[in-house]
Design a protein that fits this description.
The protein has 119 residues and is mainly α. Helices cover 66% and strands 0% of the residues.
Length: 119
C-alpha cells in the first residue's frame, strides 16, 4: 500500500498533505454501513472486534475471521497453521486483559472521533 512512509506529505510542493487526504477518504468509506464486504473491511472489523472483546489480537482467530470465510481461504491458511503447530507456535487463546473495559472505551472513542471527523 502507498500509505506507509509519509514521504508524499514531506515532498508535496502545494502543502496538500496527500496521505492525510487519502486517510480521510479511507475513513469516510469505512464509516459507510453499506460497503461490500471485502478483505480490508473484514480485517478492520475483526481487529476492532477482538481488541474490544479481550484487549488482545488472537492471531489464529483473526486469520480465520479475515480469510477463513471461504473454503479457498481456509485452504490458504492450512500451510501456515501446520508450520505454526509443528514449531509449537499455535496460540491456544488469550484471556482478556485486566483493563479490557478501558481499552474498549478507547476504541469506541477513536471510532467516534474518526466518524465525526470524516462524515
Amino acid at each position: 500500500s502507498c500509505t506507509r512512509c509519509f514521504y508524499c506529505n514531506e515532498v508535496c510542493p502545494t502543502g496538500v498533505q496527500p496521505l492525510d487526504q487519502i486517510q480521510k477518504i479511507r475513513q469516510a468509506l469505512l464509516a459507510k454501513e453499506d460497503l461490500p464486504i471485502n478483505t480490508a473491511i473484514r480485517h478492520r472489523k475483526a481487529l476492532i472486534k477482538q481488541i474490544k472483546e479481550s484487549g488482545w489480537l488472537d492471531e489464529v482467530k483473526f486469520a480465520l475471521e479475515v480469510f477463513g470465510h471461504t473454503p479457498r481461504g481456509l485452504l490458504g491458511l492450512l500451510p501456515l497453521g501446520i508450520r505454526m503447530t509443528l514449531k509449537g507456535k499455535t496460540p491456544l487463546g488469550h484471556q482478556p486483559i485486566e483493563n479490557r473495559a478501558e481499552v474498549t472505551h478507547l476504541v469506541d472513542a477513536v471510532n467516534k472521533t474518526e466518524h465525526a471527523n470524516y462524515t
